[in-house]
Amino acid sequence: MREEAPQGTVELRPHTAASLEPLLRWKNDVEIQWLSDGETRTYTREDVAATLQRWTRPSDDIVHLAINLVGRPEPIGFLHLALIERAHRRCRLGLVIGEKNMWGRGYGRQAATHAVTHAFDVLDLDRITAEVLADNPRSARLLERVGFVREGVMRESVQRDGSRVDELIYGLLRDEWTKRDA
Fold this sequence. Notes:
The protein is about 30% helix and about 30% strand. It has a single domain, classed as Aminopeptidase (3-Layer(aba) Sandwich), CATH 3.40.630.30. The two termini are about 30 Å apart. The longest helix has 16 residues, at about 105-120. A hairpin with a 2-residue loop joins β6 (about 150-160) and β7 (about 165-175). The model has no long low-confidence stretch (mean pLDDT about 90). It contains 6 helices and 7 strands. It is of the alpha+beta class. It has a 7-stranded mixed β-sheet. InterPro entries: Acyl_CoA_acyltransferase, GNAT_dom. One of its GO terms (molecular function) is acyltransferase activity, transferring groups other than amino-acyl groups. This is GNAT family N-acetyltransferase. Keywords: Transferase.
């Protein structure tokens, strides 16, 4: 078992040029693709540069952030708070720890905790959802450890290599978040 990262070792930052190389590596990693959205394809430097450019543009309905170790310039992953709906005060969380040697050490949980805090305290939302492929139990456990509750299953939701994969739907309410330490 890997040693757990000390609390306070992860911070969320806006993406910079330092995100390009790691993002190119992660976007082309078949295992990460398999666990993320099931779509396996090759991304060019131009593809990733265009993605990064989109991610750094201000938007009212999505926040893209790099996951960094405190004091280090190169990210270890990325996340987004997407589909921000102010009228309904909700959004969707997506998160990838791209550096595999960082998997299972609590960095994703710290990043998700920061993102949840941002969604509730800064964006003033009341609900966050997240979707996880059913064959990605590590991500499901991460969400549960942060406080998300499994709400349902989207059966055969993702097409992957000729077969269909279920997605698990998780949700977290502001009231649940504020009561967790009370």
